[in-house]
Amino acid sequence: MNKSRTFTAGAFLLAGILCACGSAPPTISDRAASITAAALTANRSPATVAPSPTPTLSPAPALSPTLTPTSPATAAKTNPPVIIQEPVCDNSAYVSDVTIPDGTAIDPGGVFDKTWKFRNTGTCEWSTSYTIEFVSGNAMDGVKTMLTANVEAGEEIDVTVKMAAPTEPGTYTGYWRLKNASGDFFGELVYVQIRVGGGTVTVTPTPSPTDALAIETTQS
Question: Which of 105, 138, 145, 215 could form a cystine bridge with 172, CB 3.0-4.6 A?
Fold first, then answer.
């Protein structure tokens, strides 16, 4: 019995060895096929990943412009508005004293001729119906006097008024102004100033047009 079991086991072992030795080794073609398969597996592109959707950006809110406050110094540099004056029909400008400069000494009661030179700065011609008349101060016996010639715009004329000095010593001033044919005063106010006796000379400046209007209102 023991010999029979030993013989059977040995037979199975021998058969196994013979089967193992009888199997054919892998050929070169089989190895090449294995390498090619591995290479194809390695080079296979990875699965395509769908791109994520691009987020939509909301537009940035518009910024209000920043206003720079104007400082008082900057405001002071602003040019003043240009005032355009309309042409005036009747207007005049004082040019000079032709006779009797301010402060001229005159004997008490002495008679003299006061002459001013005017320029026609308006757009209308002056006729001989235009006059020069007393406005305020001391008239020194002077009276309304007609112009002696017509005066075109831009031309000049000498206007003379006969006067007489007061009899009392002192400094005397009288204001005069041109008047048109309609009886309206116009232009610059002029004055005459004399010294009677040994009085001190006091030079009085010509009033501004505003003062002239005030004087005219007082006279009327």
Answer: 138
Pairing of strands 170-179, 131-137: antiparallel
Helices (H), 119-182: none
Q: Are 212 and 134 in contact (CB under 8 A)?
A: no
CA torsion, ordered 193, 196, 202, 203, to nearest 10 deg: 20
Query: Would strands 104-106 and 185-196 be described as parallel, antiparallel, or unpaired?
Result: parallel
pLDDT per position as a tens digit, 10-19:
444 544 444 4
Alpha-carbon distances, residue 56 vs 52, 53, 59, 131 (angstroms): 12, 9, 9, 90
d(CA 156, CA 94) in angstroms, rounded, equals 10
The residue extents of the domains of the chain are 92-219
Q: Can you tell me the mean pLDDT for 125-150?
A: 97
Structure tokens at 152: 């075109």
